[in-house]
Recover the amino acids of this structure.
């Protein structure tokens, strides 16, 4: 998994009825775009994230 600042991190819900969580990557802490990432969620909360298998990276050009 590789990302750059400005990409979107989408954590898919794990159970029925659980919504996806979307965050903007604001800092890449790993080498050459690898995790961990500092992210900002839509509610303004910031966290350091090591994405799991239920997560995808959406680059700006593929968001539309």
């Amino acid at each position: 998994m590789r990302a750059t600042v400005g990409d979107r991190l989408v954590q898919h819900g794990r159970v029925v009825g659980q919504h996806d969580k979307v965050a903007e990557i604001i800092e890449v802490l790993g080498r050459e775009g690898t995790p961990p990432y500092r992210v900002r969620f839509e509610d303004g909360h910031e966290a350091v994230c090591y994405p799991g298998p239920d997560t995808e990276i959406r680059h700006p050009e593929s968001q539309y």
About this structure: The chain has a mean pLDDT of 91.
